[in-house]
């Protein structure tokens, strides 16, 4: 497996985690837990953004790994 | 009117009458009896019993007696609500039996309790050694409330400096195979959502005896057919595992890359994710 594809895999997992956190946030009844989960979701989202940028760079450097 | 019919009619009358009276006097009459409630409770009962079977007696006299015995406690209860001194007089006060770990012999004597009775009350609260108790008080209703010494108190998460996820009361959304709409709307969910969750568990609604949703929106069910194993909810542990895996991946990427800029980015994000994990772990572990 190439570096680009493992980074992409990691990105996909993180996106999944973000979605789970988001759905958990909407279902949670307790206010404090909801806030914590929401903050976690926002932070995971920032990491996702960073990784996306990095994948863009990787694809530019090694165009043969473009796409999936 | 034959006598038996009178007995039947009186029974019905007093049954409804006594039911209404007890309703009026409130739940206190049932759970904890103060001196006053004890006395009136007994008397109301015997007036009722006497009149139901004693057909030769005048029913109006009985009703009058009942009204007085129900009315005065109602009045007393009302004044007690407003006035502390009156309340103490009518309902009695707690008496301290153990203070600073020492038995108050005078108070025991005053309430005419023997040491055996005190030990018995303590044992009912699972205390077998008097020296374990810091403070104990005999309540007006006759039961003993105790405060154990700190070292004998059960361990709590606070003692261990443990962070635990706070919870709200779970809602029962399915009973006997039927969906209850009111609790479902309390947690802002629809029948649609519930059906999806049931599909995820692979069970049909008809087979569900009891279904509850916890404060994190996880559905747990008990089935009519006890041979079928229902999987426990996996979403939260799975989420935690995914985040941990990603965190490890990011660290690996940081080690693997030679570009300084990317290295920084990876290690910064792996630390960030670790912080996120630390923050939500206590919730996700449930």
Automatic annotation (TrEMBL), chain A:
Protein name: NADH dehydrogenase
Organism the protein comes from: Domibacillus aminovorans
UniProtKB/TrEMBL annotation, chain B:
Entry keyword annotation includes Transmembrane helix: yes
Subcellular location per the Swiss-Prot or TrEMBL entry: Cell membrane
Transmembrane segments: 59-81
Domain YetF C-terminal: 82-214
Primary subcellular site in the record, as a coarse category: membrane
A Gene Ontology cellular-component term: plasma membrane
Protein family membership: Belongs to the UPF0702 family.
InterPro entries: DUF1657, DUF421, UPF0702_alpha/beta_dom_sf
UniProt cross-references to Gene3D superfamilies, sorted A to Z: bsu07140 like domains
Topological type in the membrane: Multi-pass membrane protein
Cross-referenced PANTHER family: UPF0702 TRANSMEMBRANE PROTEIN YCAP (PTHR34582), UPF0702 TRANSMEMBRANE PROTEIN YDFS (PTHR34582:SF7)
Top-level taxon in the UniProt lineage: Bacteria
Name of this protein: YetF C-terminal domain-containing protein
Entry keyword set: Cell membrane, Membrane, Transmembrane, Transmembrane helix
Keyword Transmembrane helix: yes
Source organism (scientific name): Domibacillus aminovorans
Pfam families the UniProt entry points to: DUF1657, DUF421
